Every structure is written in structure tokens, then in C-alpha cells.
Amino acid sequence: MRLTEAIHLVGGGVWGGMGLSPGPDCNCYLVECGGAWVLVDTGSGVGASPAAIAAHIEAAGARTDGLTAILLTHMHGDHAGGAAHFARASGAAVYASGLTAEVLSRGDEEASAVAAAKNAGIYPADFRLQPLSGIAPMDDGEVLRFGDTTFTAIATPGHCNGHLSFVVSVAGRRDLIAGDAVFWRGRSLVQATADCDPAAMAASMVKLAGLPDIDGLFPGHGAFTISGAKRHFDEAASHARALRLPPGV
Ligand SMILES: [Zn+2]
Predict the structure, then answer these.
(1) Which of 36, 89, 189, 248 has the fewest beta carbons under 10 Å from its own?
(2) Which helix (H) or strand (E) holds 213?
């Protein structure tokens, strides 16, 4: 589903998603970069989800085995559980924060909160986080270029440690793929997990509100906006500056 000239929505499941794929998948975005294709977040890898996401990738005009790169916002299973599948299917280079890379390399279900999510019934009991080694670590402010498009990593911890958002810049547009750092109307996603840090989340929201000239906000769950992202960042930051978190998504 094309959202902008460059950004397609190719996954989003039953857990706060758009019903594009059947599993507990985040919103997965495919970015068309003038001949290169970059997948940002891979969904859960549960059941028929990878096949459904692959079908949306092909409907966008790309091929799963033709992906250039895979970027991961964070280590949670609904965002990164399918990473090993898509990395193997495509041979694409995978990028994430150093911490996300380390946790995924050992398929660590405790650190990635997959074990907690299974206990909560969010993921099926037989779900296994497939280890994925060789992820290239990205630091805050680091820029990758694919085709005519740049991706700038923005460290946005709080929802969990090692969380990145990505500013996607091409042809005069600047969009933020935010993962679970901030949502439409500046909403938040606080979870009762060991590394969810309200103070860090608030600081990340203030940081995002300071990004210049962002057009669209494309979060990991729920609604997105094609223009006027700053209004949503400012709403989040107004709560954060008052030492509280915005309402939940
Ligand atoms: Zn998450």
C-alpha cells in the first residue's frame, strides 16, 4: 500500500496494526529508493505473516530476494521477529543499534521481551526468536544512503533500550519512521518490561520534537500521518516537558 512516493506499508497485524498481515506484526514500511528497496522492521515472523508481508512487498513492485537493506527500530518480536527470515530470503544487509544487534545475534527472548510477551499471550507459546548474526550496528546520527535516499538513525530509547528511529530523506521530503518511540497524536507505548524507561522516553519525545522539517510520521503501530508530523511531536513533547507521559496509544 503506497503511502508516499517512496514509502509503502507492507505489514501490520492484529496487535495494533492495520490488518495487512495475520500475526502480531508492527507496521512494516518498504522504502523505494530509486532502484534500491529498504525494509524497515520485519514483523513478527509468526505463522503466515512473512508470506503476507512478502506478498505486499511484491505488490509494491519489489521482490523479497531483491531487498537492498533491512533496518530495525528495536529488538521486540513484533518488529524484529521476522528479521532472520527476511535476511535469509534476501541476503540484504541488516542494520540496527549495537544493543539490538547483540540481543538478536543470540536470539535472546528475555532481553528482547519476547518471553514476557509470550507469557502475556501476545505471541504464541511456540514462537521462537530466530538468532540473526552479522547485523551492522548504527549509532545516533549515523547516515546510510541507498539509491537517492538517506536514512539517519536517531537514538530514541525509552520504549526499550537500543531503540532507533529513522529520518528518511528524499526529493525534498523528510519523514520519520518512529518504531515505538512516538505515535499519532503524540501517544506513547509504555510497557511493563524491564527496560521500559519513562524518563528516557520523555527525553526522546522532546528530541524528536526538535527535528527540523519532518513531513510524515510513520509509527510502529496504528495511524500514520503524511504531513504535519510536528504537531504530533509537539503534543508528545508538551506532556514530556510537564514530567508526564502522553496517553497510551
Ligand atoms: Zn516495541
Answers:
(1) 248
(2) none
